[in-house]
Design brief:
Helix content is 12%, strand content 41%. The chain has one domain. By secondary structure, it is mainly beta. Strands 3-4-5-7-8-9-10-11 form an 8-stranded antiparallel barrel. Mean pLDDT is 86; it is low at 5-17.
Length: 187
Amino acid sequence: MKNKIGYTLLILGIVSCRAQTISLDQLSQCEKANCPEYTTVKDTNNRLNKFTGIWKGTNSDGRVYEFSFVKKENDGGWFNQKFWDKLIGRFVVKNNTGNILYTSMNANDLNAIEGFQFDKNLIKYQMYYSGNAECNDKGYVYLSFPDPSNLNQMKLVFMQDMDIIASCPNGYKTVIPDAKGIILIKQ
């Protein structure tokens, strides 16, 4: 009987050592060399909550953007066995006459904008978007608040990956403008 209890405690101890939880804040401060082993990343300070909801804005070329961000808890675990609290974003783009140019509103989570982590200053939240990969319409999306006291106005910036493109039509424009901020208003 004592051997069974001892064996059970040993297994629980090994599992609990491997099943470490860190916060999004801790993750933003780690370098790859000094980041602790973890299996779960939690939004312990509820930093993601201020980004959730419907946000609308217009680009300088007249395109109208509507983003929907939701917070997912304990997402993942499929391939890398890590679970994550993160934002998932979907959006629709319309031209200035209201015609839909692009929508991901019905996309599954794997084809949406997927959140990752905050910068070291906990100001910008980094996400990844991949729309039309053949035209290099993919890269990082950064969310921040230009005025931290006004959580009804958010800035979104898309930074395109720097891959070589071989099959994109002439004149193709990324769905989200590259390296240009869009100011979004919470609805």
